[in-house]
């Protein structure tokens, strides 16, 4: 059987999303579907709202002073901007990885076990299994299995970033958000993370902000181009880079600004 006409199931359905930092209108009328088991890349010049947008997907910025958010972010059919949303549960399902790898000052093991413990897993054998599987999931197991109780901060930058992804995987998420996950890494570590992203998308939905257009082209299925708080264009990655429909996208990808 071929894979013709794969059903594109929506994980996020974002409608008329607007966000202000006081009077700074940082996201403007964003309509944005995000599909299951795809990699969606977000590109655009510095300050265009990429980080603001991706943080909004697990409601990380609502508590920032002066922030006002309007519109809908439907995640699996529920508007997570409603005050009732259980943010602990949401963040278990929608994990986040940042530009600067941010392991806790604890052991490698404890970094990965932390999330599952918060969510009520306490059995040692179960935790061991989660830690092993999560570290295998990011191709870090072989490198660290003999020093699981050593400090995570002793790992290299690239290993720390893979550990942070393992930490996100440990709570069995559905979606992983990554905000410029490789911009602090060397080329080899970057390549490993890119390979990992291609593997992870078999099981997870991934949204990645990158300032590197080649990276977007290498890893993503869909690419979104943001400019000054607006979503200018969202399309199949191949299409967006070969035949953009908006002049501003074309100007950006051909290096005329940014
Ligand atoms: N915590 C914040 N408080 C106030 N303004 C912010 C904050 N974070 C971002 N901004 C502003 O929102 C706009 C978009 O920023 P950001 O989302 O960080 O862009 P990008 O990630 O594309 O570089 C910018 O004008 C920035 O100055
Ligand atoms: Mg940013």
Automatic annotation (TrEMBL):
Q: Which UniProt keywords apply?
A: ATP-binding, Nucleotide-binding, Transport
What's the superkingdom here?
Answer: Bacteria
Q: Where is the ABC transporter domain?
A: 6-253
Please name the SUPFAM superfamilies in this protein's record: P-loop containing nucleoside triphosphate hydrolases (SSF52540)
* GO molecular function terms noted in the UniProt entry: ATP binding
Matching entries from InterPro entries are given as: AAA+_ATPase, ABC_transporter-like_ATP-bd, ABC_transporter-like_CS, P-loop_NTPase, PstB-like
Does the entry feature the keyword Acetylation, yes or no?
no
- Name by which UniProt lists this protein: Phosphate ABC transporter ATP-binding protein PstB
């Amino acid at each position: 059987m071929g894979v013709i006409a794969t059903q594109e199931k929506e994980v996020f359905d974002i409608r008329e999303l607007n966000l202000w930092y006081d009077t700074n209108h940082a996201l403007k009328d964003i309509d944005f579907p995000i599909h299951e088991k795809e990699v969606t890349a977000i590109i655009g010049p510095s300050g265009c709202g990429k980080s603001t947008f991706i943080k909004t997907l697990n409601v990380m910025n609502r508590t920032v002073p002066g922030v006002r958010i309007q519109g809908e972010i439907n995640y699996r059919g529920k508007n997570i901007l409603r005050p009732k949303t259980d943010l602990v549960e949401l963040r278990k399902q929608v994990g986040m990885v940042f530009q600067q790898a941010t392991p806790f000052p604890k052991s490698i093991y404890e970094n990965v076990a932390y999330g599952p413990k918060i969510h009520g897993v306490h059995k040692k054998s179960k935790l061991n299994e989660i830690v092993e599987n999560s570290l295998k999931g990011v191709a870090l197991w072989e490198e660290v299995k003999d020093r699981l109780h050593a400090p995570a901060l002793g790992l290299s930058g690239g290993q720390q970033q893979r550990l942070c992804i393992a930490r996100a995987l440990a709570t069995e998420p559905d979606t992983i958000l990554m905000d410029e996950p490789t911009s602090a890494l060397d080329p080899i570590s970057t390549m490993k993370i890119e390979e990992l992203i291609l593997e992870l998308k078999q099981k997870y939905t991934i949204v990645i902000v990158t300032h590197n257009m080649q990276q977007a082209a290498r890893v993503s299925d869909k690419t979104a181009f943001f400019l000054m708080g607006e979503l200018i264009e969202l399309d199949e990655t191949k299409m967006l880079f070969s035949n953009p429909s908006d002049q501003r996208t074309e100007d950006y990808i051909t290096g005329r600004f940014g």
